[in-house]
Amino acid sequence: MTSSSLPNTADPAWKDGLVLSAGSHDSPWLGIDFMEAVSIQAGESYSDDPKCASVFLAELGRGLNDALDDEHRQSLIPLIELVPGTRGDGNDWLREHMALDWLVQEWFPIWLDGVGVEEPDQATKGSLWITTAMDLRGSELADSVATAVAWEGTTPKSSDKIQGDAVELYRRMVTIEVQL
């Protein structure tokens, strides 16, 4: 595929009608995921591993793209233009901290509700998971966030909250907005 067959990203309307789909694709004409759209936005070769994106954001972006349901996946579209230029910006350490904070503060309480507090073995298991998560870095941490988003042990209402919160977390990571 030549770069001339890719959309013209100088035209802001190139994303009009764009529908992100799960998985990676050999061609944008066969489907497009979030990070593939980022590569197009940056004018790079079509890939789900754009060189313009922070390594952590790229890993998490691929994971979220596949973990989110179709509706929430489309919430990533406005973030496409924000990701290029984040590679090497020195903020991945902060993004990792934000991801760990989200797992502990947002996801873990929902997980506890999902398994029921009256199940101490499950709660203990979750506490051990949190302790383990604190040792995670980079792609392992990004994978843990995506796995948490995809966890099916929630009610539809809490699943909707987790997915919406995960998209908001990603937006804050791209723009480096820290919640205190």
Report a brief summary of the structure.
By secondary structure, the chain is mostly helical.
List keywords for this structure.
180 residues, 2 domains, 7 helices
Summarize the SSE layout with pairings.
Elements lengths: L33 H8 L13 H13 L2 H4 L18 H24 L4 H14 L4 H13 L5 H20 L5
Helix pairs in contact: 2-6, 2-7, 4-5, 4-6, 4-7, 6-7
Rg over CA atoms, rounded to whole Å, is 17 Å
By secondary-structure content and strand pairing, the structural class works out as: mainly alpha
- The number of distinct structural domains comes to 2
User: What is the averaged pLDDT score?
Assistant: 82
Helix content: 40-55%
Give the DSSP E fraction (strand runs of 2 or more residues): under 5%
Distance between the termini: 46 Å
Query: What are the segments in which pLDDT stays under 50 over at least 5 consecutive residues?
Result: none
Sheet having the most strands? none
Specify the number of helices.
7
The total beta strand count reads: 0
Shape: globular
Helix/strand order, N-terminal first: HHHHHHH
